[in-house]
Specification:
Elements (H helix, E strand, L loop, with lengths): L1 H8 L2 H89 L1
Length: 101
């Protein structure tokens, strides 16, 4: 009786169509989700590539800066040594001149 009333209100063909529609919608949702995930993965991969590129650019700039700073440090040290020796030489000459007088 229940079955008959169900068929009266909802014929078999429309039940089949309804379940097919649900299945198609479900598959469509899965496909859409996978596509969005694929797009998201592609977007994430692109962002990772850009971040890696920026990191390597920064590393190159850092390397150049490090070289400059090491050269600057060496030049500063050499200059300090030269100035120290010059001061020492002046002091030695002054000491010698004072001892001669």
């Amino acid at each position: 009786m229940v079955m008959n009333s169900l068929h009266q209100w909802c014929p078999v063909s429309s039940v089949a169509k309804s379940s097919q529609t649900k299945a198609i919608r479900r598959e469509g949702a899965i496909i859409l989700r996978l596509k969005l995930q694929k797009d998201t993965d592609a977007f994430r991969l692109e962002r990772e590539k850009e971040a890696t590129k920026r990191l390597f650019d920064f590393a190159d700039k850092y390397r150049v800066l490090t070289r400059f700073l090491s050269i600057y440090s060496i030049a500063t040290q050499v200059t300090r040594n030269i100035l120290w020796r010059e001061e020492r030489f002046k002091s030695d000459i002054e000491s010698f001149m004072c001892s001669m007088m």
